[in-house]
Amino acid sequence: MGANASLEAIAKLAGVGAGTLYRHFPTREDLLQAVYRSELEKLVEAEHKFTRTMPPVEALRAWLLLFVDAIAEKELIAPALNSLVGDVKKVFEASHAQTHEAIQRLVNRAIQNGDIREDLDPMVLLRALVGVANVATSPDWKKSAKRLVEILITGSRPVR
């Protein structure tokens, strides 16, 4: 089921009545924005969890792999979000700021631990992964993107 599914079908899949869905999400735009925000909030929550439970470079790796999954989710809903009337830039801007802060904290932690070179711009990592998704011509692009995470981590190690 994609972003263009009927709200009735979504309610049925969620196991709720259409009225319940409409009470919480009066418009398709409200639902899509909530899904988008939820995906990016998962990234921010994951950064906190990974920071508490993993060594710095492993936390960065795990978060980047989760970011690939978030890109895949966004690809499903982005066309519908972009076609809606309204200012979706506000949704994207707030979520992007949180995502940028999360990756910055992960990279800084890995730099401080000596796992990652000091001159690494965290946005380079994200741009590389988004770039793979944007030029994807096959359904297995996620596999390539996840392999790219390993290449990016290896290439970000300090020169010794």
Written account of the structure:
By secondary structure, the protein is mainly alpha-helical. It has one domain (28-155): Tetracycline Repressor, domain 2 (Orthogonal Bundle). 76% of the residues lie in helices and 0% in strands. The chain is built from seven helices and no strands. The protein has helices spanning 7-14, 18-24, 28-53, 56-83, 89-112, 122-134, 141-155. Helix 6 runs antiparallel to helix 7 (141-155). The longest helix is centred in the middle third of the chain and has 28 residues, at 56-83. The N and C termini lie far apart (49 Å). 18% of the residues are buried.
Question: Main beta sheet: strand number and arrangement?
Answer: none
What is the CATH C-level name? Mainly Alpha
SSE string? HHHHHHH
Instruction: State the end-to-end distance.
Output: 49 Å
Global morphology: elongated
Total strand segments? 0
> Mean pLDDT, as a whole number?
80
Poorly predicted parts: none
Strand percentage lies at under 5%
| DSSP helical segment count | 7
Which topology does CATH recognise? Tetracycline Repressor, domain 2
What is the count of structural domains?
A: 1
State the CATH architecture. Orthogonal Bundle
CATH homologous superfamily (4th level) name:
Tetracycline Repressor, domain 2
- Percentage of residues in helical conformation: over 70%
